[in-house]
Amino acid sequence: MLRFGVIGCGYICHVHVNDIVNNLHGAKITAIYDVNKKSAEQVISEFKLGIQPSNSIDELIESPEVDAVLVFSKNDTHTEPILKSLAADKPVFTEKPLATTVEEAKQIVDAEVKKGKRLIQVGFMRRYDPYYQELKQTIDKGEIGAPLLGYCRHFAPAPPNDYYKTSDVINDTFVHEISVISWLFNDEYQSVQVQYARPNSTNTASELQEPQVATLKLKNGAIINTYLNINSHYGYEVKCQVIGETGIAELPDMPSTRIHKDEKIYNSVPIESGGRFAKAFQLEFQDFIDHVSKGEEPAGPSAWTGYMAAITCAKATESLQTNQVVDITFGEQPDIYK
Ligand code: ISE
Which residue ranges traverse the bilayer (predicted)? Predict the structure, then answer.
């Protein structure tokens, strides 16, 4: 039984811990830490873990009761526990993004390369979503010819907190499209442009300017537009349409109960990623457990993928500030990621 130490006890921690305890096999939680001890105690009691919160990140990582570390803390706090897990030679699953600056992402990649083996998996769960998988297979089989254009929609009903910032729309939300589009289209990015649309007057987060429209261009010339809207009000919705030389392939509308009520007929929509991507979250974690418990390297999205995403996010933010198309270059991929 693989023993996990969990760092960070917010929304996504609840999703993953629930899966580990109730839906997956081969792992259990033996240590948990949050800067706010009460949040750790709440998870312990909700999932009847029967453990005490750890007193520090170091104590948790160094514990002989912990085989692998799960990082679910705030986006800009991932680097320290990841580097410490590598130093302790423990596999680590980190939620996306890998890091919020290119410098920190590079530091992580350099530390992993120095170890000479992969220990890190990044939580880009869309690659495990059965509908995205089917979309990729359709493209890879050549059913729509070479993909030329893409249209994506990434909507959330409301900002997850009132300190959600303009740059979070890129580092926290758009980062999912950044991760999944190059995988779907089998190519690297050449440039990015992000623009603001007319501001949503119902927005309540003071440092948040959105909606935004992002345009990614791949080296092969394909262009993909994404509408990013954090104040959709109606729900959490992700769309992806790929236009190829001989046809179009797109994610289906998500099946949901059809309700007949109050002179209306309608379908319900999830309000959080945990609803829409429930299966993907389970598959990504089971995959991590299966590989790591056999002593193998994690097979999911690597730190290199996280590093390329961090570079693309930085260029996207630069574009938002300068209103220019910004070119993107990545260095050479180290051997451990090939
Ligand atoms: C959140 O962190 C996610 O990862 C969701 O997938 C994204 O849609 C949401 O906007 C983010 O806040």
Answer: none
Q: Which atom of ligand 1 is nearest to the CA of 156?
A: 10
Question: CB under 8 Å, gap of 24 or more: what pairs does 113-119 form?
Answer: 113/334, 113/336, 115/86, 115/89, 116/336, 117/297, 117/336, 118/297, 118/298, 118/302, 118/303, 118/336, 118/337, 119/85, 119/86, 119/89, 119/90, 119/91, 119/92, 119/297, 119/298
- Which protein residues touch ligand 1 with a CB less than 6 Å away? 154, 156, 160, 172-173, 176, 273
Give the model's pLDDT for residue 173.
98
Q: Which amino acid is at 109?
A: V
Instruction: Report pLDDT digits (tens) over 209-218.
Output: 999 999 999 9
What is the reported pTM?
0.96
- Are 301 and 176 contacting, i.e. CB atoms less than 8 angstroms apart? no
Q: Report the Cα 223 to chain-centroid distance in Å.
A: 22
Q: With contact defined as beta carbons under 8 Å apart, do 275 and 256 qualify?
A: no
- The torsion angle over the Cα atoms of residues 72, 77, 82 and 83, rounded to 10 degrees, is -170
Cβ(52)–Cβ(73) below 8 Å: no
| Complex confidence, ipTM | 0.95
One-letter identity of residue 271:
I
Domains observed in the chain: 2-125+279-302 (3.40.50.720), 127-271+311-323 (3.30.360.10)
Give CA–CA dist 86/119, Å, rounded: 7
Give CA separation, 98 vs 71, 189, 220, 315, in Å.
10, 18, 26, 16
Q: Is 254 exposed, middle or buried (0-12, 13-18, 19+ CB in 10 A)?
A: middle
Specify the DSSP class assigned to residue 133.
Answer: H
238 CA: nearest ligand 1 atom: 8
